[in-house]
Every structure is written in C-alpha cells, then in structure tokens.
Amino acid sequence: MTQTFEGPTFEGVAVSLSWIERAVALITLTRPKQMNTLSLEFIREFNRALDLIDVEGTRAMIVTGQDRAFCCGAHLRYFAGPEATFVNSFDARDRYLTDIAVLFDRLEELHFPTIAAINGYAMGGGCELALSCDIRVLAEHAKIGLPETKLGAVAAAGGVQKLIRHVGRSRALDWILRATHLDAATADRYGLCSEVVPASELLDTALNIALELRKLGPRAIAQSKRAIYVSEDADLRTARRYGLEAIAMLVGGDEWKEGMSAFTEKRTPGFDNW
C-alpha cells in the first residue's frame, strides 16, 4: 500500500487526505499527541476532505487514525483548563456539538461506502465517528465505547441512538451507563464490526473491502445504502416505497444493463473500471 493515485489531496493540522487506490480515498486523523480528538481544526478539515471526495467517481472511503488512537472524542481542553471556552458559552458549545453531529450525519449521506479502520482507541465522539461509517474493521488491540458518564457528560452527536440501533436498548443501556470500554472481540461478538484483524493487517483489510465494493454497481450501492438508512427511521410501507422508487431509477440504466448482461453471459460485470 505504498503507491498513491491521482486525486485531490491535502495535509491539514488534524486531517490528511490521500488516495490509496483508484477511486478509493483515505482520510487519516493526524494529531496522535492529542489522541486525534474532535478539535475545531478536525471539523473544518474533515469537512474539506469530504468536499473533495464527495464527487462522482469516488467508490469508497477509509477513515483511520495515527498511532494508538483512532479518535478519542471531544477536545476536552475546550471544556477544562485554560482553553475551556465552551463551559460558560451555551452558543459556542451548542455550535461545536452540532457541527460534529452534522459532520457525522454527512458520512451516512455519502453516495459511496465508508469504512472505519479502527487502529486503537475509539472513545466517545470517536465511537460516534466509527458508528457513522458504514463498515467497521477493528485492530485486535482496539477499544471502542461511549464512556461519557465517567466524565459527567453524555454522547451528544448521535452515538446513543446509533448504538441502540446496532445492539438494542438493553445492551446500549448497560454499556453507556457503565462507561464500558469494549475490546475488539466483544465488539465483534455483538455485531459492531465486520472483522477483527492484527494491527499489521488493518489497512490492507479495509482496502480489500473497498476493492470488493468497487467491483459492484456504484448506483446500486448508493441506493442500497440509502434504503438501509431510510428504513431505520421509516415505517415498513414508507421504506418499501423507497425501495420501489430506487429500483425504478436503476432499471434500464447503463449499470442495470451491464449487470444483467454479465449475468446472462456468465462473466464478471465491468463495474470496477467505471
């Protein structure tokens, strides 16, 4: 994975963007000394990365962190110590937390799949970031959780709601109220991730998933992803109606024709090069 591929790139203070394969973007959180926390620079630069990535032709995105943390959540210096500007300002605090939540929601709305390659601690807002990605791969030593009750706080960027959807109310109550740090094996057992792998294999595993996705119909993936997220909030009839609308948009199009032709001709569809 040493080769890079053409595409818009940048190196920010907290985030970098590169391309590790054609149409496969890599966002790396690059403030390991601060445990890759959700600083104002992080929010601004992550949004900038998405602006560059969220274009037709992008097929997958991987998010990972440098060193021992994936992301350890809110930048606590904003809430304690000399930089604690948010403690006495509701507006500043609300804007900060809202901007994080909007950023995480944006991940779910992307037309291509997102993969969290969780290289270490994914705590608080870092767990919320991971849960906002479509697919999660954990290194064997990684930890994930919403330990805000240990800090006298609550996960406010969607993590509570998303954890309930993944593991149910009872398990979410147990883990959140007890500020549990889940090891990778436990996260895997309860369906929070797709794979657990040695740290040395983490990015290669995430990339292989991305390349597998690249071989499938991009519009079909986009519509399937959207159907899943719509179904979480909609009643059965509304969700089913969305599915009918989605298939109507696909039938007869170039992607549909290629997929059907490949099936009848017993060959692999050529989506990998689209």
TrEMBL record:
Signal peptide: none annotated. SUPFAM superfamilies: ClpP/crotonase. GO terms for biological process: fatty acid beta-oxidation. It comes from the Bacteria. GO terms for molecular function: catalytic activity. It holds the Pfam family ECH_1. InterPro entries: ClpP/crotonase-like_dom_sf, Enoyl-CoA_hyd/isom_CS, Enoyl-CoA_hydra/iso. Belongs to the enoyl-CoA hydratase/isomerase family. This is Crotonase. It comes from Pollutimonas thiosulfatoxidans.
